[in-house]
RNA sequence: GGCGACGUAGCCAAGCGGCAAGGCAGGGGUCUGCAAAACCCCCAUCAGCGGUUCGAAUCCGCUCGUCGCCUCCA
């Protein structure tokens, strides 16, 4: 398997440290509802995890909740609710969204506010070794102590300074120094520390959680491209300085960002479509096909047209699993070939668009064999298995609950009576009216079937 | 200004040195009482210009256009 490593900029052979792949996927700051940009990141990394498991790896994956930071504090104040109340609500919503998107659960979801002792331990360690210094109750990381600062972002300190957007902050020795521990402001939540009351800076929580739950060296650390700098760059600085071990992460993976129109979808710009909004219009499978239909490192633009196209594609895959498997002849499907193509695609830096193409090809082949009267159960099982690797559910829309099924069946029976009597106008009228109610009919050789669609 | 990525059919999107995957839409067939579904066939020379090579969408250079990061952000 090969993975593109952001640090080297190269596609590298994937060799994990041990039996278990240690993986960390940057989570959210639970300040508001998650949007489909988040969905894009987490669906991509979900497919990656699923494939690693499919390939026989054990995977231990951790995802943080950064439940304390400026944004949450301000937002909670604006809404007039407590910080924990806001965070709890958004974390619960996030889990609901992830479940709805069929993103498999992480092994652990640590929270920044519950990792304070580990965070203080790291900050203290950094101060002891001279990598960080206290100033006015805060503690800053001394960026100039590192030779390789900027490596992940492929930038040097000088180049960053040239950006000239950095505000020098009086307490800092160097404008690029970043805060690892923030002195408390009045009215804000705070914890006791050797430097007085304060709270963690951004970045430090991820170092604390990954070191604590996965060890000094991770195999894979993932997140959106917008996290490369400064977030992940700073994580490397803190973690490696604290443990004295390199590398902190063997493979850095970053997904491209979702755009809406010509801009990145982002909370600060406000051009957001929430996961719930998307799910109210499109099926999970459509959303996953839309996202996995583009390579994880490429940017993707959200559009109703693209989602609708994905929805139709999803319907085709589903249809292939729903069709009956009547024939009794032996199988002439090249299952090994299909599997090989699928794995070659995924082995190559998780090329999900190509893997999806394999599924669509398999679907066409399956339908063809069915039309020729072959037993297609094996092909269907393969399609089901590979779809699950990509996290597709391929579940049809539920038939209506309870009673109405019987009435629909009654109408179909009546209509088929009319058809036999060649009363086609009446039969077509029933079909049309059922369609208006969201019930779609198909007359096949084996009888009439129906399904509910929105 | 610095760093990075990208520009492939009507739309979305793989391929990254050897005769252009896949999805959606479109056209033509088969099947069907008609629909629907499904199957078969058709539909691009890869932003532009120049170079390297037996051979380039794929490598190099320039031009044009777009996006991301450098500040909170998946």
Task: Summarize the structure in short.
The chain has 454 residues and is of the alpha/beta class. The protein has 15 helices and 15 strands.
Tell me the name of the CATH homologous superfamily of the largest domain. Answer: HUPs
**CATH fold description of the largest domain:** Rossmann fold
DSSP strand content = 15-25%
- Count the strands? 15
The shape, in one word, is elongated
Low-confidence stretches: none
Describe this protein's structure:
The protein is an alpha/beta fold and 454 residues long. It folds into three domains: 2-264, HUPs (Rossmann fold, 3-Layer(aba) Sandwich); 282-389, Anticodon-binding domain of a subclass of class I aminoacyl-tRNA synthetases (Four Helix Bundle (Hemerythrin (Met), subunit A)); 404-452, no CATH class. It is 45% helix and 15% strand. The protein contains 15 helices and 15 strands. It has helices at residues 36-54, 70-79, 83-100, 116-128, 157-162, 204-214, 228-243, 275-281, 284-292, 304-322, 335-347, 352-371, 377-389, 404-420, 424-436; strands at residues 2-5, 10-13, 20-25, 58-62, 132-135, 138-141, 178-183, 198-200, 218-224, 249-255, 258-260, 263-264, 300-302, 439-444, 447-452. The protein has a four-stranded parallel sheet, with helices on both faces. A four-stranded antiparallel sheet has the order 5-6-7-8, covered by helices on one side. Strands 12-11-13 form a three-stranded mixed sheet. It is elongated. The two termini are 40 Å apart. The mean pLDDT is 92.
């Amino acid at each position: 398997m090969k993975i593109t490593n952001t640090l080297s900029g190269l596609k590298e052979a994937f060799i994990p440290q041990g039996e278990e792949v240690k993986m960390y996927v940057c989570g959210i700051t639970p300040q508001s509802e998650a949007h489909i940009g988040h969905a894009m990141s987490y669906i991509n990394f979900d497919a990656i995890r699923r494939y690693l498991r499919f390939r026989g790896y054990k995977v231990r994956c951790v995802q943080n909740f950064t439940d304390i930071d400026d944004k949450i504090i301000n937002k909670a104040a604006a809404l007039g609710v407590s910080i924990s109340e806001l965070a709890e609500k958004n974390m619960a919503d996030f889990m609901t969204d992830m479940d709805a998107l069929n993103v498999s659960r992480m092994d652990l979801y640590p929270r920044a506010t519950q990792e304070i002792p580990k965070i203080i331990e790291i900050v203290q360690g950094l101060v002891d070794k001279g990598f960080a210094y206290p100033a006015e109750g805060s503690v800053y990381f001394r960026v100039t102590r590192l030779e390789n600062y900027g490596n992940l972002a492929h930038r040097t300190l000088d180049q960053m300074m040239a950006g000239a957007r950095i505000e020098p902050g009086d307490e800092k020795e160097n404008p690029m120094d970043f805060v690892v521990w923030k002195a408390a402001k009045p009215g804000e939540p705070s914890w006791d520390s050797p430097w007085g009351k304060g709270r963690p800076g951004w970045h430090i929580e991820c170092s604390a959680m990954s070191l604590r739950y996965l060890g000094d060296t991770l195999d894979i650390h993932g997140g959106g491209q917008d996290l490369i700098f400064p977030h992940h760059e700073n994580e490397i600085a803190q973690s490696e300085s604290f443990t004295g071990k390199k590398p902190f992460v063997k493979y850095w993976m970053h997904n491209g960002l979702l755009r809406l129109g010509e801009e990145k979808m982002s909370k600060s710009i406000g051009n957001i479509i929430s996961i719930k909004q998307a799910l109210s219009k499109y099926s999970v499978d459509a959303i996953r096909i839309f996202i996995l239909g583009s390579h994880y490192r490429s940017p993707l633009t959200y559009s109703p047209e693209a989602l609708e196209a994905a929805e139709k594609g999803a319907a085709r895959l589903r249809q292939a699993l729903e069709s009956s498997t009547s024939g009794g002849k032996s199988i002439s499907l090249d299952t090994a070939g299909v599997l090989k193509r699928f794995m070659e695609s995924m082995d190559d830096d998780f090329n999900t668009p190509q893997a999806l193409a394999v599924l669509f090809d398999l679907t066409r082949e399956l339908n063809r064999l069915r039309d020729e009267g072959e037993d297609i159960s094996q092909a269907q099982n393969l399609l089901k298995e590979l779809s699950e690797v990509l996290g597709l559910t391929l579940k049809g829309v539920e038939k209506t609950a309870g009673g109405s099924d019987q009435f629909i069946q009654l109408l179909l029976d009546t209509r088929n009576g009319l058809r036999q009597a060649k009363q086609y106008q009446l039969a077509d009228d029933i079909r049309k009216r059922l369609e208006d109610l969201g019930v779609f009919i198909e007359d096949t050789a084996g009888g009439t079937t129906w399904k509910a669609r929105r």
